[in-house]
TrEMBL record:
Occurrences of domain HTH cro/C1-type (ranges): 13-67
Pfam families, A to Z: Cupin_2, HTH_3
Keyword match DNA-binding: yes
Identification of the protein by name: HTH cro/C1-type domain-containing protein
């Protein structure tokens, strides 16, 4: 059984799976994870690593950020302290900085991150480099960002990114997929 420090996401995974009318076996096949492990996650008897959570999210046509957001209650006021690592995945070095189901999702990435996965979100996303530097490949162009730089990615833009210095800290803020953005 895999163990991670991600918050309990079982109910969110189950809701998403059922909304898509998928069986555990189908999600297992799509994700490459076992049905018993997925059952344990859905029943909050196991917590997936961020890597496994992303595999589950891919199988369910969503993102790990969306599953994390859907797993927590909405809060009208919530302070997340710098030292609060209750949602920190130590292996992936990623920490949610907004908890609950809100219109915005935010994650802080610390340390080395590779461009091994391509992302494409339905809505806009903002990347802010707090420390270090990153390279972002988007729309066929490579963008090098340093401390204090930001990059806006409109919804639908395929992209991947990686840190290029040890100790890099990146804040990624995205409009939730459950929010319908209306063009005016």
């Amino acid at each position: 059984m895999e163990a991670g420090n991600t918050p309990r996401v079982g109910a969110a995974v189950r809701r998403r799976r059922r909304a898509l009318d998928l069986t555990l076996a189908e999600v297992a096949r799509r994700s490459g994870l076992s049905s018993p492990f997925l059952s344990q996650i859905e029943n909050d008897r196991a917590r997936p690593s961020m890597r496994s959570l992303q595999r589950i999210a891919d199988a369910l046509g969503t993102t790990a950020v969306q599953l994390l957001a859907a797993s927590d209650e909405t809060r009208t006021v919530d302070v997340v302290r710098a030292g609060d690592d209750s949602g920190l995945d130590r292996e992936a070095r990623v920490r949610p900085v907004v908890r609950g189901r809100h219109q915005l999702h935010a994650l802080e990435f610390v340390g080395a991150h590779e461009a091994d996965r391509e992302f494409r979100h339905r809505n806009d996303e903002l990347m802010y480099v707090a420390d270090g530097s990153v390279e972002v490949e988007a729309e066929g162009q490579l963008h090098r960002l340093g401390r204090g730089d930001t990059l806006l990615l409109s919804g639908g833009v395929r992209h991947r990114w990686r840190s290029t210095e040890p100790g890099t800290r990146v804040l990624v803020v995205a409009v939730g997929d459950h929010v319908e953005v209306v063009e005016s």
